Amino acid sequence: MTENKIIDPTSPNWNWKRPIASPGRMAVDFEERVNFDRLREYRVARAKQAVKNSGLGAVLCFDNNNIRYLTGSVIGEWARDKVCRYALYTPNAQPYLWDFGSAATHHRMFSPWLEQDRCKAGMLGLRGAVAPEAGLFKQAAKEISRLLKLEGVANMPLGVDICEPPMLFALQEEGLEVRDAQQVMLDARQIKSMDEIMLLNTAASMVDGTYQCIAEALKPGMRENEMVALANKQLYEAGSDDVEAINAVSGERCSPHPHNFTDRMYRPGDQAFFDVIQSYMGYRTCYYRTLNVCSATPAQRDAYTRAREWIDVAINMIRPGVTTDKIAAKWPEAKEFGFENEMEAFGLQFGHGLGLALHERPIISRLVSLDNPFEIKEGMVFALETYCPAADGNGAARIEEEVVVTNDGCKVITLFPAQELFIANEY
Asked: DSSP state, 333?
């Protein structure tokens, strides 16, 4: 027998000499795929170090992404905007989790990595639907204060990521000093383990297949909303756990970018771009592609070429130690592609971290990066996206690639063809 290896839970376990895996979704006995025990241990170890570094005694999280990072628990898309679940974590002990009604009982039955006596039912305000006078905020704040005393950190600041104002007031009435925990949790989440990267890569592979379906169906007479429906079906059948949004934008709607879809019908020669935002095991994609319907004009091809050049310049710069201001400086100023200022153009020439949330670190933009640079580090995963309107007003090109930062560069994990403008069902 081989000697058991002692694995450091904070080790990201990278081996950049091998391709990043995109394994199947089944559990198998003949090869190692994502190791979820290792994934959970890594995330808690990262959070533990981040909290210690912050000077906080504990973090109280209402952000579902932070709750999942700390506890490995989830109850789905329904909970995304309810602010009804919360978790308390100190570096001294396992996290406490308050979940919605019967979900707490389910966790005690099916989540053995969580300590049973720390899985509790909890309810607060449901974004104001339950008035503060009901007393749930005060009750929760008193329980949290008691647990902080039990853990020996009641005299230290408490970090909170997001919450309803009555919860903040109730914590302060208990004599607790409340500080920002979102930055602490983003510190923890910015460096991905290989298990996280495999999940992000698998999520991207689902979108690869979705674009193949879109390319085959993108014909005159089809509508934007029908393409959104097709993409949702494909993604959920492929194993997505949350299709957050599908942008489908075409023709005259392309410029300026409206960030939504309608029932507009595709016509021959339309330029159409899509963004697929979805997750697998919580790990998200943000993945734009531009496809033309049947044919393309010289102006459309030129717009695509420029958008491709801008994104390639950025990809070629990505490596550990490079700062975000250097990347943002290579992108065109807002007025060069039709906007008055960088605030109006925000999100068009753009980079953003990916993980359990759609927007993590780093954020790359002329709006924020030139004066506030951030260092790129090995193990980060983020998306780079560019946009260029066609000079004749008939469409715009939008390209996005997801990259994994390696020890000496980066690897692109969004693989549907995008080096040249894709013509769907070409005449």
From this structure: P
5 has a pLDDT exceeding 70: no
In a 13 Å sphere around the CA of 227, the CA atoms on its Cβ side amount to 34
Which pLDDT score, from 0 to 100, does residue 77 have?
Answer: 85
CA-closest candidate to residue 357, choices 287, 285, 414: 285
DSSP H or E run through 350: strand 350-353
What does the pLDDT look like over 59-91, one tens digit per residue? Answer: 999 999 999 999 999 988 888 889 999 999 999
CB 120 within 8 A of CB 114: no
Convert the pLDDT of each residue in 342-352 to its tens digit: 999 999 999 99
pLDDT at residue 4, as a whole number: 45
3-state helix, strand, coil in the chain (%, to 5): 35, 20, 45
Q: Distance (Å, rounded) from C-alpha 424 to C-alpha 187? A: 42
- Classify domain 194-424 at the CATH topology level: Creatine Amidinohydrolase (3.90.230)
Q: Which class is 36-189 in CATH?
A: alpha beta
Can you tell me the distance from the alpha carbon of 383 to that of 362, in angstroms, rounded to the nearest whole number? Answer: 9
What pLDDT does 3 receive? 44
**Which of the 8 DSSP states describes residue 72?**
-
Q: Where are the domains of the chain?
A: 36-189, 194-424
Q: How does strand 287-293 pair with strand 271-280?
A: antiparallel
The number of residues making up the chain comes to 427
Give SS3 for 381: strand
pLDDT(44) > 80: yes
Of 98, 94, 89, 118, which Cα lies nearest the Cα of 181? 89
- 62: tokens are 């209402």
| 421 has pLDDT over 70 | yes
Q: Specify the pTM.
A: 0.96
Type of residue at 210: T
For residue 393, give every residue at least 6 positions away whose Cβ sits within 8 Å of its Cβ, in sequence order, or none. Answer: 252, 255
How close are the terminal C-alpha atoms of the chain, in Å? 63
Backbone angles phi, psi at 118, to 5 degrees: -105, 5
